[in-house]
Amino acid sequence: MRARCLRPLFGLALLLGACAHHHQDDDAINDEVNAYPKNYKSDILGAMHVYLNDPTGIRDGGIGEPTFKPVSGIKHYVACLRFNGKKSGKDYAGPKEMAALYIAGRFDRFIDQPKQVSELCAGAVYAPFPELATLTR
């Protein structure tokens, strides 16, 4: 009789133990997903080849240090970027600001919607990013 009463308690203990173990896995996943992007500058340089029609001759390049910000309700590292790229031939499009989103320490995508960029990059401190001017096709 006593064993029959203890079975539900034993099952509950196993269930709680599994939850505690699962929580530790979640922490490890969050640490990996939110890893600091060590190569953020080189990632951005590589992505600019795909993003821009003509990546040559970029002027006034600036970059902000990656910061931990909420993007669509989930925190990720975001690096803000400012530059003046060509729109066609020798004509320049004018200053542009956008954000680079990182997941698991690697570049995921550019965010270029003005409202979202202004929120993500508010207060960003830009350092010169002259490497943008050296991009080739």
Element order, helices and strands? HHEEEEEHE
User: Spans with pLDDT under 50 lasting ≥5 residues?
Assistant: 12-16, 18-24
| Class computed from helices, strands and strand pairing | alpha+beta
Query: Kindly, what is the distance between the CA atoms of the first and last residues, rounded to a whole number of angstroms?
Result: 79 Å
As a percent range, the share of helical residues equals 25-40%
What can you tell me about this protein's structure?
This protein has 137 residues and is α+β, with helices and mostly antiparallel strands. It has two domains: 1-33; 40-134, no CATH class. The protein contains three helices and six strands. It has helices at residues 2-33, 40-51, 114-120; strands spanning 59-64, 67-71, 74-88, 91-103, 106-111, 126-128. Strands 1, 2, 3, 4, 5 and 6 form a six-stranded antiparallel sheet that branches. The chain is globular and about 45 Å long.
Blueprint of the fold:
Layout: H1 2-33, H2 40-51, E1 59-64, E2 67-71, E3 74-88, E4 91-103, E5 106-111, H3 114-120, E6 126-128
Antiparallel strand pairs: 1-3, 1-6, 2-3, 3-4, 4-5
What is the structure about, briefly put?
The protein is α+β, with helices and mostly antiparallel strands. The chain has helices spanning 2-33, 40-51, 114-120; strands at residues 59-64, 67-71, 74-88, 91-103, 106-111, 126-128.
Descriptors:
137 residues, alpha+beta, 2 domains, 6-stranded antiparallel β-sheet, 6 strands, 35% strand, globular
